[in-house]
Amino acid sequence: MPSNLEGALFVFLLATFVGFEVIRRVSPLLHTPLMSLTNAISAISLVGSIVITGAEKSQLSVILGTIAVVCSMANVVGGFVITDRMLKMFKKREPRQ
Fold it and tell me: Whole-prediction pTM value?
C-alpha cells in the first residue's frame, strides 16, 4: 500500500505532465485567456499555502508553506504583468500629432 507521500508525489507528477501537454498544445490566440486562468489557479494555490503556513503544524510545514507563499506570489504577480503587457499590444494606439 503506498504511503500518503508517495500518493501525493504520484498525483503531483501526473498533474505536471498533463498540465505541460495541455499548455503546449494551446493556440497562441488563446494564450492571454489561458494566462488569466492560470493566474486564478495560482491565486488558489497562494491561499492554500497561506492556510498551511498559518496552521503551524510543524516547523517544516511553516518553512515549506512560506516558500510556497513566496513562489505562488511571484507566479501571480508575474502572470498579471505578462498578461497586462500582452493586452497592451492589442490596444489601438493614438495617432501622433
Answer: 0.59
